[in-house]
């Protein structure tokens, strides 16, 4: 059994893994959650282990364990921990370790990072939460690539986030609206936008109070790809060139010219109709017809010339056709593009995050090309199963980027693992000339761990965005370690807002409080705003009705409050909603 933490004691956490997520999760648990953390890494000299040590946090201990077993976990304090997080990028290893923890310490809360959703469903139970870091990052990256708002479902409503790149919007705008577009709630308020002093707060915006830029963002997408759009004749020619090569087009052109020259010659010599002359020219060229002894001498000479030329041309055409069939089959087997693409998105890197991005784009009807240097990458099979074109090659090379039609793409998303590789690909993509009918600039979205580096890249590369998947996912993993589910995360300047559902426990500070007590703006960025709540008094007979926060109804035990908050605000709400017995068993820090 995991012993309960007494009042006034620091909650202890164990983090197993070595990577960006382990670093950000450790920092959140130690600084914001005021807990003590032991991190198990395979090599204490690795980059992220050193990053953790350089934080200089007093209650963080980094231990080296080549193999994480029962002894290593005991040394890390798993027997006295409130929760453990398994954040390695190894589904099998994380599952095995989660089963070991369940066997040794059944009361321990375990948070597991798993990409395979079906595997995660079998593992999840009341003391084990399964999360995917890519699930939190993919929507934001897709929205950045498409320059569109991100829509996140919240029960019967949706949360809409609007990019902060519009000149009229000096801060990020977050909207909460019903499916019909009514009852809009905006972050920040119109007054805050006007005074250029926006806060991380939500405020009601009634009819006529919504900014025009915001109103347009709430309209349905009108740029979905039409799968039945008309293709230009030039596209058909380029498709034929891709599948069969330009030699087939050249061979066909030579054969047509030979036949036409012969037909014109026969027409001029005999005065026959063009169709009749064409008939006389085609037969010796393609069918090897019997000679006509009574024909005009010019016709005879022409037919002989056509027959001789066709003897050389026909085998060439046949060989080119066979080569084209073989080439097409190879392209089909590889899943490579079979026709020219334009206004599409190129996704480089088919790991967990890249695979989820490809799925999301494909579901939205956006043309996408996937690129990876490794043919055995996790996302290759997923992309091919969805008929998404795949290019195998080094994306730092121009030939690979041209094969993905980067010059005609609207955006390139680079989610490779190495920082130098990511930057190299972005520069290589910018060097590809833009196609005639392509968007004027290539949108570049990069996965970058270092946020300072992301800002420098943005200054260096026009129309680029640097995002960190671990930055977006860490608050959700940290919240899960105190038993709090996070629906979604939203980047806001140097912070991450979380969308969460808080359940009011009997005897808690929120038991009997009003909805206004859920929203607050405390010093130190502990901020929260209530979006809506489910009342148990009505859900039993009214099907779980959603009430507006402005109605000021009291909160009762079992009510669920839907909030958007900073991490510190979520911790504050979690403490307010927890019963005294829960707080005594699992202390929750309130430091930001």
UniProtKB/TrEMBL annotation:
InterPro entries: NAD(P)-bd_dom_sf, RCK_N, Trk_Ktr_HKT_K-transport
SUPFAM superfamilies per record: NAD(P)-binding Rossmann-fold domains (SSF51735)
Example GO BP: potassium ion transport
Transmembrane segment boundaries: 239-266, 304-326
Keywords: Membrane, Transmembrane, Transmembrane helix
Protein name: Trk K+ transport system NAD-binding subunit
UniProt entry tagged with the keyword Protein transport: no
RCK N-terminal domain location: 342-466
């Amino acid at each position: 059994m995991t012993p309960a933490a007494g009042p006034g004691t620091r909650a202890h956490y164990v983090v197993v893994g070595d990577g960006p997520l382990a670093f950000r999760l450790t920092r959140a648990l130690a600084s914001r959650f005021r807990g003590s953390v032991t991190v198990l890494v395979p090599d204490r000299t690795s980059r992220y282990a050193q990053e953790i040590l350089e934080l200089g946090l007093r209650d963080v201990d980094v231990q080296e364990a080549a193999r994480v077993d029962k002894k290593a976990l005991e040394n890390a304090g798993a027997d006295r921990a409130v929760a453990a997080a398994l954040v390695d990028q190894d589904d099998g290893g994380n599952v095995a370790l989660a089963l070991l923890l369940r066997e040794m310490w059944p009361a321990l809360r375990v948070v597991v990072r798993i990409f395979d959703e079906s595997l995660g469903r079998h593992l999840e139970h009341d003391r084990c939460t399964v999360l995917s870091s890519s699930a939190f990052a993919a929507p934001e990256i897709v929205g950045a690539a498409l320059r569109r708002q991100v829509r996140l479902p919240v029960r019967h409503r949706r949360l809409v986030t609007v990019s902060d790149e519009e000149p009229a919007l000096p801060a990020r705008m977050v909207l909460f609206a019903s499916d019909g577009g009514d009852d809009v709630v905006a972050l920040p308020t119109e007054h805050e936008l006007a005074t250029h002093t926006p806060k991380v707060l939500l405020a009601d915006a009634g009819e006529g109070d919504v900014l025009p830029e915001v109103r347009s963002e709430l309209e349905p997408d009108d740029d979905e790809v039409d799968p039945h759009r008309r293709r230009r004749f030039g596209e058909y020619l380029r498709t034929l060139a891709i599948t069969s090569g330009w030699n087939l087009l050249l061979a066909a052109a030579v054969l047509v010219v030979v036949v036409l020259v012969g037909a014109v010659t026969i027409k001029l010599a005999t005065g026959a109709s063009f169709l009749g002359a064409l008939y006389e020219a085609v037969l010796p060229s393609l069918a090897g017809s019997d000679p006509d002894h009574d024909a005009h001498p010019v016709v005879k000479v022409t037919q002989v010339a056509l027959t001789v030329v066709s003897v050389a041309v026909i085998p060439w055409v046949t060989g080119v056709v066979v080569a084209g069939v073989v080439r097409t089959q190879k392209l089909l087997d590889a899943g490579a593009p079979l026709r020219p693409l334009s206004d599409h998105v190129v996704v480089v890197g088919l790991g967990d995050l890249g695979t989820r991005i490809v799925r999301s784009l494909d579901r939205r009807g956006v043309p996408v090309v996937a690129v990876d240097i490794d043919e055995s990458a996790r996302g290759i099979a997923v992309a091919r199963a969805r008929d998404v074109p795949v290019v195998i090659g080094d994306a730092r090379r121009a030939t690979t980027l041209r094969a993905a039609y980067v010059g005609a793409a609207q955006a390139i998303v680079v989610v490779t693992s190495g920082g130098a590789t990511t930057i190299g690909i972005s520069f290589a993509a910018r060097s590809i000339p833009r196609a005639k009918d392509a968007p004027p600039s290539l949108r570049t979205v990069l996965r970058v761990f270092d946020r300072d580096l992301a800002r420098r890249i943005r200054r260096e590369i026009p129309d680029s965005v640097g995002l960190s998947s671990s930055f977006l996912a860490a608050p959700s993993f940290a919240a899960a370690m105190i038993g709090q589910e996070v629906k979604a995360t939203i980047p806001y300047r140097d912070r991450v807002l979380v969308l969460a559902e808080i359940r009011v426990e009997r005897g808690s500070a929120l038991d009997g409080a009003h909805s206004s007590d859920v929203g607050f703006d405390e010093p130190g960025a502990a901020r929260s705003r209530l979006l809506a709540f489910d009342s148990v008094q009505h859900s039993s007979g009214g099907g779980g009705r959603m009430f507006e926060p402005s109605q000021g109804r009291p909160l009762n035990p079992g009510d669920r409050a839907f909030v958007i908050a900073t991490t510190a605000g979520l911790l504050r709400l979690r403490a307010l909603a927890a019963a005294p017995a829960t707080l005594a068993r699992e202390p929750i820090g309130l430091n930001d």
